């Protein structure tokens, strides 16, 4: 059980911190939307446009929705999210949306994008193991099924969600003329051929590597009878005793 401070768990404090960070950023971004220029001035240094701030605001709103999503889903479908999984999820959310996009770590910190993709691949691979239990409504199903099947499912689960993220980037690059998939250089020069695919393919590759490494470790643990991934296990909520019949 996670340590609590005045009745609030560490995960909840982290969530509150992220929520406040997003909220403050949304206020400043909203102000900048009205102050920023609509288009670049020819011959002048590149500046942040109104459309860029609109996308930042969208990312922050999306971050808040994603922040609330685990709680909403757990109440709706009656399952408990492991504290360790929730903390890893919060760290990834903060690092990707707030640090990566709002604080521009993607463009200022070398390989920040690849680090996050590797981390997310491993995290989603871990969740994939316990997700089998949840889908089958049986907390012992992982120990009953063959380790190879569970491992393949966890790997496909992680890589599929990574593919959905690339679809998200591709979609909004087209809708808002962004450069999340790095098909342009920082000065706006378009890339061609394999160079234009390098960022997207690099993301997919590290997604695969991160998830594969974790899945192989999980497979070994199941074969040896050491299912340490129980720490990532989603559990169905049990009805309270003495409730209405």
UniProtKB/TrEMBL annotation:
Q: Which Pfam families match?
A: DUF2238
Annotated membrane-spanning segments are 12-33, 53-72, 84-103, 115-136, 148-168, 204-222
Print the keywords alphabetically.
Membrane, Transmembrane, Transmembrane helix
Does Translocase show up as a keyword for this record?
A: no
UniProt keyword Transmembrane, yes or no? yes
Q: Which InterPro entries match?
A: YjdF-like (IPR014509)
- Name of this protein: Uncharacterized protein
């Amino acid at each position: 059980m996670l340590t609590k401070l005045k009745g609030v768990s560490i995960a909840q404090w982290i969530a509150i911190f992220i929520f406040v960070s997003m909220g403050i950023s949304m206020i400043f971004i909203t102000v900048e939307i009205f102050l920023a220029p609509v288009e670049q001035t020819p011959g002048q240094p590149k500046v942040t446009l109104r459309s860029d701030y609109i996308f930042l605001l969208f990312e922050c709103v999306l971050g808040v929705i994603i922040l609330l999503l685990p709680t909403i889903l757990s109440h709706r479908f009656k399952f408990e999210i492991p504290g360790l999984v929730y903390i890893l999820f919060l760290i990834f959310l903060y690092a990707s949306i707030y640090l990566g996009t709002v604080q521009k770590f993607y463009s200022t910190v070398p390989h920040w994008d690849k680090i996050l993709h590797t981390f997310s691949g491993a995290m989603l691979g871990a969740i994939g193991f316990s997700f089998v239990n949840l889908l089958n409504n049986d907390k012992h199903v992982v120990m009953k099924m063959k380790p190879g099947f569970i491992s393949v499912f966890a790997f496909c689960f992680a890589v599929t969600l990574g593919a959905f993220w690339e679809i998200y980037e591709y979609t909004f690059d087209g809708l808002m003329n962004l450069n999340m998939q790095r098909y342009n250089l920082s000065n706006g020069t378009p890339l061609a051929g394999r160079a234009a695919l390098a960022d997207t393919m690099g993301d997919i590759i590290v997604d695969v590597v991160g998830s594969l490494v974790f899945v192989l470790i999980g497979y070994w643990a199941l074969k040896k009878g050491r299912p340490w991934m129980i720490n990532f296990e989603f559990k169905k909520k049990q009805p309270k005793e003495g409730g209405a019949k």
